[in-house]
TrEMBL record, chain A:
Similarity comment text for this entry: Belongs to the ABC transporter superfamily.
Gene3D superfamilies in alphabetical order: P-loop containing nucleotide triphosphate hydrolases
Originating organism: Streptomyces bambusae
Domain ABC transporter: 4-234
One Pfam family from the record: ABC_tran
Name the UniProt record assigns to this protein: ATP-binding cassette domain-containing protein
Automatic annotation (TrEMBL), chain B:
Species, as recorded: Streptomyces bambusae
Pfam families, per the entry: ABC2_membrane_2 (PF12679)
UniProt keyword Transmembrane, yes or no: yes
Keywords: Membrane, Transmembrane, Transmembrane helix
Transmembrane portions of the chain: 50-73, 133-157, 169-193, 199-221, 269-288
Record carries keyword Transmembrane: yes
Lineage top rank: taxon: Bacteria
Record-given protein name: ABC transporter permease subunit
Amino acid sequence: MTVIATESLSKRYPRVTALDRLSLDIGPGVTGLVGANGAGKSTLIKILLGLSPATEGRAAVLGLDVATHGSAIRERVGYMPEHDCLPPDVSATEFVVHMARMSGLPASAARERTADTLRHVGLYEERYRPIGGYSTGMKQRVKLAQALVHDPQLVLLDEPTNGLDPVGRDEMLGLIRRVYTDFGISVLVTSHLLGELERTCDHVVVVDGGKLLRSSSTSDFTQTTTTLAVEVTDSDLHPDGAAALSRALARAGVGLAASEEQGLPGAGHILLVEATGEATYDIVRDTVAELGLGLVRMEQRRHHIAEVFRDHDQQQLAAKGAGGDGA
Amino acid sequence: MAPESSTQIHNIGYRSYDGTRLGRAYARKSLYSQSLRGAYGLGRSAKSKVLPMILFAVMCVPALIIVAVAIAVPGSTDLPIKYTTYALTTQVVIGLYLASQAPQSVSRDLRFKTVPLYFSRPIERVDYVVAKYAAMASALFILTATPLLIMYIGSLLAKFDVGDQTKGFGQGIVSVLLLSLLFAGLGLVMAALTPRRGFGVAAVIALLLIPYGAVSTVQAVAYGTGNTGAIEWLGLFSPITLIDGVQTAFLGATTAFPGGDGPSTGVGAVYLLVVLALIAGSYAALMARYRKAGL
């Protein structure tokens, strides 16, 4: 089943080409749409909602053509914009009820669904207070609630983690994951940060300059050997604990991964260890204990999608250099 | 709510919605009623009820006094003031009401960027504009027609001639209907120009009062210099004198123009055309305004 399908979709403005022959085929689940600012993400969303005609090509959402069935699509799709969109002088409940009715829900159903939805996104007593007094995190939840209140089959979330602190970001990403796993609503979520999508999405689509750069499932990106991040303290005997551990592990035959975090504060204290099996954990623990260092943390670290794309880019560059511009 | 079917168990109790979806026409109607209620502060904070309710009361009190006088004075056979004159004499109150409520109806959605949320739903631009326009016009109609209704009921209680009163009341209603459509259109266009509420309020007041002030001044000068032919044409340049002209020509009203001579039927037709053109123009301007206000 296809949720979103586009076929050589192009959108040209007098000065810029926002989308350039983009062909996508997105199934159910959580799909991340990644691209730098101006990569064409918002333009794509506008076209998918049937609000802006494509210059050429076709697009279908939930099997409905965007050019002819815009209204029917918008009845079954939820949209959370990137920017602020909430009036400060009404309560979340009043606002979401109104938006539910705008989606065609009868008054009693609108009230019932609003109460449910606000509870699901984590707004409780505060939902009766004016939105003006909410924190950024709470406002983002209201924005998400208005996109979900009519129980759509698909929600389009434009940069939902914008402006949130790390904790708020994690909560929002967890919520987005639940929208699909618990509510059964497919999600298209845009971001300019690859990293935050790898935990949330089943599938990642990367666009750049209106073109499709890559589209594959998240597990493809991150299914490689596990890397352990190990952080140790220094001791009087070993003033540079990390270096001492690195030497000791090398002697024990454990492979070290090149750290991606060189130059970051504290990066010198983190060792990336390639875990080949359960035994590696024991070796690390024992080696740390033998050296008399304190083990601050040892955690699994998957490869970041970013690394995969960097590899992908390099391969492309190499291919270009060797075979000329084949595409 | 239907009981949860065994195939739809979610661990946090999410219930999907299988009920009816009433679509575009229903959404438009909901937006209309929400905007109309909002124009009187209903469904909004207690503070926002104060001004519209006070202005509504101020509109009605003179009508009650007129009725009381008509009933109390023995031997009177008609109300002391014509139905069509009422809106002209209370135009400042109508202007204040429009200036305070038109911006709250449209500027808020623009300022807080709520407009994209509407357009990401089944309704289209035309539904939004029609609902907002109709709601503002209805709110003004309630404001201007209620005093007329009070006067009409009062006149019946005073046992004035039913035929005369009904005719006058009908003419007054047609007149305030035109006034509501014209003022709502102009007010919404001015308010939709700016997302800033304060500017919207100022712009609406300026649009109603400055042309009126200018027109009456120039009319007075023309009257003073004996140039009476110009008076009936000058009235085309302000909203309230337009209404004055139309109702004087077609609805048996007494004009407030200097000299007491309103436009003749021929010139009155021009007045009516200008009013209708302004109403259509306001609608077109609003449609154009929201073309760019989408996502």
